[in-house]
Design brief:
With about 700 residues, the chain is an alpha/beta fold. The chain contains 21 helices and 23 strands. Helix 1 packs across helix 12, helix 9 crosses helix 10 and helix 13 packs across helix 19.
Length: about 700
């Protein structure tokens, strides 16, 4: 069904509704209109890394982990599986008359905000700190969710529009100030790409204000969206964000005034209850019937495109419930986890050899923590494999496994009646009796996440610093003091200062929140059944870097992310080691694509990610550091050499001036090709070779 056909059907249907019936359809929990054959529909569903909050589903790695794959093809497959499970559930549940929240086909994902500050608790919901990477991955996710059929498979939603990345505790009243340059260069490109290149069906407004106007009724942002970018879908408020207009932002005096502002600005759907005042706003002359009709038509258009109104049949109606969390889908989650883990250090201890590594002590609060597998906005798996369980499965019959929790995740003791550090002696004893130690540390969704959803209520889900909780730092020092070969596994969704582990452990691996199959994947990587190949989609800073950064509430990009940070990071954006040894042998570029010759000179088959960066050598408007403009995940057997062609970002050879306009800049660019960013720290950590090429773009 074309959009034009769906619009026509929607207009015909809405013309038969009373004004009050139309108004009801603008609520996220839209009631049935039985006389017109319109069933009730709840617009709220979540699909960040698998269907969330609606029962059993395949649980994939958290979004930041999937970003670390640097693999848009794999991400599109993952999103397609999520959509398949959504259709399977919708088919089964709607047949039984169940149209509850989290059971619909409108997915409020992906989160394409820029992870600009490492303290932001929701950063692990995003694809990281780079606008181009975020756009590439966001488009792939949208295409997977929406499909290529006659109907939308599901409807995706780009959130949170726009300039939204903390602090969480201020989001209901905060005013984010962003320059025209930062808007055009950083905060808006991914949204524009998803609208213009992926035809996304929905956009969600943020809680905060941007440049003094609330994001759910922001004239500047709405003009970009529906004017310049020609967005054709529907706009939804974040949940209860419209209440903030009168309760916290104080830009309106009451709910009726809020209705008028939001509706006239183009907010079609209200997640919350403010639009219950629509009829009062109409009676008071603050809105017109046409304002209501316009929004209702957009919403009915989406439902017709999904094929869930009238007698419409779709190509997805026969998807059975049995596909939910089937073996094929779990295997895809397993593959995602394998590709997402990032090897940060390896002095030679990895991969482990079962025959020689002897007794293994698995220690740490995240070693057997299911919550650390799943991140936030997660579904329910029928089986979880923790890191401890994954190691036990592989080592069964060969190695003795000793286990100690070591400490609580963030409290100073495990047992309430015990003294502080009540598991340290056990952990140190296990380490002393072992030949090899696996120390599993980090956070989970109770410590970093969304305001109101975490146990970290004092910071509303944000982090106060980049350090592990104190008890984990004590545990790490005591265990490493035992002097045994030790691998530190970090499970977290954001930058953590792992300086002590980097300086004292034999290896450090970042597993993120790797999904229900995560422990299996981590164990397989540890024992060399597959080579790690993930790359950092965010910069890992030392904690001291926070004093160099702008305030958390400062939305200027100066000093933020790998593009503008001029200090030395702990682990740079784009960094990640493998067990192989790939080298770049040749680079050619014409400004639209790059052809790179790569050889795996090591003795291990491996995945890798070719990364292309560009920098305007002379323009004052260029960021101080080279910027990612192309990437491609590859796989090479030991000794294999091959050529790879990479499409480059269409904006790669431009700069953004202070007015927010893209220009050719100086026209003098350097292009870099390697397996990480072209910076000194990456070279120091990985020893990678970088090839460069000069490119001159005509500026007339």
């Amino acid at each position: 069904m074309t959009r034009e056909e769906a619009v026509k059907k929607a207009e015909e249907l809405v013309s038969l509704m009373t004004t009050e019936e139309k108004a009801g359809q603008l609520l996220f929990n839209a009631p049935a209109i039985e006389r017109l054959g319109v069933p009730e529909y709840n617009w709220w569903n979540e699909a960040l890394h698998g269907l969330a909050r609606g029962g059993t589903a395949t649980v994939f790695p958290q979004a930041i982990g999937m970003a670390a794959m640097f693999d848009d093809e794999q991400l599109e497959k993952t999103a397609d599986v999520i959509a398949t499970e959504a259709r399977a559930k919708y088919n089964a549940y709607s047949a039984l008359g169940d149209r509850d929240i989290y059971h619909g086909l409108t997915m409020w994902s992906p989160n394409i905000n820029i992870f600009r500050d490492p303290r932001w608790g929701r950063g692990h919901e995003t694809y990281g700190e780079d606008p181009y990477l975020t756009a590439r991955l966001g488009k792939a996710f949208v295409k997977g969710l929406q499909g290529n059929g006659e109907h939308l498979k599901t409807a995706a939603c780009a959130k949170h529009f726009a300039v939204h990345s903390g602090p969480e505790e201020l989001r209901h009243s905060f005013n984010a100030i962003a320059s025209e340059k930062d808007l055009a260069e950083t905060y808006l490109p991914a949204f524009q790409a998803l609208v213009e290149e992926a035809d996304i069906e929905s956009v969600m407004g943020a809680y905060n204000r941007t440049n003094y106007e609330p994001c759910c009724a922001n004239s500047y942002l709405m003009n970009k969206l529906r004017g310049e970018w020609n967005f054709r879908g529907h706009f939804v408020s974040d949940c209860w964000a419209l209440n903030d207009f009168h309760e916290h932002h104080r830009i309106t005096g009451c709910p009726v005034e809020t209705v008028a502002l939001a509706l006239k600005a183009g907010c079609d759907l209200n997640c919350g209850g403010t639009y219950e005042f629509i009829m009062q706003a109409l009676e008071e002359g603050k809105i017109t019937g046409e304002d209501i009709t316009k929004c209702a038509v957009r919403l009915m258009t989406t439902r017709f495109l999904l094929g869930i109104l009238g007698d419409e049949k779709t190509e997805y109606d026969s998807i059975p419930y049995t596909v939910v969390e089937c073996e094929e889908h779990r295997e895809l989650a397993h593959q995602d986890a394998l590709k997402s883990c990032v090897l940060l250090k390896n002095s030679g201890i990895l991969p482990l050899n079962k025959e020689t590594c002897g007794t293994i002590a698995v220690i740490g609060p995240n070693a057997d923590n299911r919550t650390a597998l799943i991140g936030n906005y997660h579904g329910t798996s029928s089986r979880y494999i923790t890191v401890l369980e994954g190691i036990q499965d592989i080592a069964a019959g060969t190695n003795r496994i000793l286990y100690s929790q070591g400490c609580a995740l963030s409290e100073d003791r495990v047992e309430p009646l015990a003294k502080p550090n009540d598991r340290i002696a056990e952990a140190v004893t296990a380490a002393k009796y072992a030949d090899t130690v696996i120390l599993v540390l980090g956070l989970d969704e109770t410590l970093e996440g969304e305001e109101g959803d975490t146990g970290n209520s004092y910071f509303s889900g944000d982090k106060k610093d980049l350090l592990l909780p104190e008890q984990q730092r004590i545990l790490m020092e005591k265990v490493l003091d035992a002097g045994k070969p030790t691998v530190v596994i970090l499970m977290a969704g954001s930058s953590i200062d792992m300086t002590y582990a980097q300086e004292n452990a034999g290896a450090v691996m970042l597993a993120w929140y790797p999904g229900a199959e995560g422990g299996r994947a981590v164990a397989e990587l540890l024992f060399g059944m597959e080579s790690p190949s993930g790359k950092l989609p965010v910069t890992f800073y030392r904690n001291s870097a926070l004093s160099e950064m702008p305030d958390f509430t400062d939305y200027s990009m100066k000093g933020r992310t790998y593009r503008y940070y001029t200090g030395e990071p702990l682990y740079p954006f784009g960094y990640g080691l493998t067990y192989g040894k790939c080298v770049v042998k040749d680079l050619k570029t014409d400004g639209q694509k790059a052809v790179v010759t790569v050889k795996n000179t090591g003795n291990c088959d491996t995945g890798e990610v070719i990364e292309i960066y560009a920098k305007d050598d002379d323009s004052a408007y260029a960021p101080p550091n080279p910027v990612l403009c192309g990437f491609k995940r590859i796989r090479l057997a030991a000794g294999e050499e091959a050529d790879f062609s990479l499409e480059l970002d269409k904006n790669a050879f431009t700069v953004v001036d202070d007015a927010g306009s893209r220009t050719p800049g100086s026209g003098n660019f350097t292009v870099y090709a390697g397996f990480g960013a072209p910076d000194q720290r990456t070279a120091e950590l990985s020893g990678q070779n970088i090839l460069t090429a000069k490119f001159k773009k005509k500026t007339e």
